[in-house]
Amino acid sequence: MFDSGLGGLSVMHAVRDALPGEDIIYYGDCLYAPYGDRNSEYIKERCLAIGRFLISKGAKAIVVSCNTATAEGVNTMRDTFDIPIIGIEPAIKPAAAATKTGVVGVIATTRTITSERYLRLVREFAGTKVKVVSVPCPGLMECVESGDWDSFKTQKLIEKYLHPIKRAGADKLVLGCTHYPFLSNVLKRELGSGTELIDPSAAVARELKHQLSKRGLLSDGAKGKEVFYISGDAEKHRAVIERLWNSEEALDLRSDPPATKATLS
């Protein structure tokens, strides 16, 4: 599994629940985050570099637990690698199907919201029947990366970004970045009880299990282990990872090897 930073750990929780016997390698590309500020070619290069690294470590499938990396790089990865590549996308389809007010809010990175993949999701599943209020949220990912979940700064950003969604009367809020589930309490507090948060992590875990099962690749082990690779200095992120992963066991945390360094600036 990989993400531009640490947000993909929200997806990893769902994967661990669905697949308790699998060993999981998580790669957080913190040195090169956020992807939302990068161009498409840069993101594709990072996806391929990290994909090669994960395969070299024995990966039998890869979860792209980053909406921006999925939007910009998942097709390139599928064209390059011959193992299952499972991406994550904003859950427009279930939100549009479930809304009672006919209005769905989406918060995500600018890169995700402007991607053709995202715009196609909106056209296909919302069409003209459901209004989708898409709000780019610069800075919100960084609040999670720094462990700054409940600060005044974070609350003010959330208040600002949710304002047009609340004003439009949305009753569903799609979390279009894997960092955002870690802000669920603050988001719920701002939205009130009338708006449901939609997180696609469980659906990603189900799809991964399906892909492994149909290939006969499911582990028969009782308890899998986790290894965390971080680009740059892993120890700088230990405290936040421990908080996000919330395990009683010691983290197997490792720094990024030179082989996966970016060649683009």
TrEMBL record:
It holds the Pfam family Asp_Glu_race. It comes from Parasutterella excrementihominis YIT 11859. This is Glutamate racemase. GO terms for biological process: cell wall organization; peptidoglycan biosynthetic process; regulation of cell shape. Pathway: Cell wall biogenesis; peptidoglycan biosynthesis. GO terms for molecular function: glutamate racemase activity. Gene3D superfamilies: 3.40.50.1860. Provides the (R)-glutamate required for cell wall biosynthesis. The keyword Mitochondrion does not apply. It catalyses: L-glutamate = D-glutamate. Belongs to the aspartate/glutamate racemases family. It is an enzyme of class 5 (isomerase).
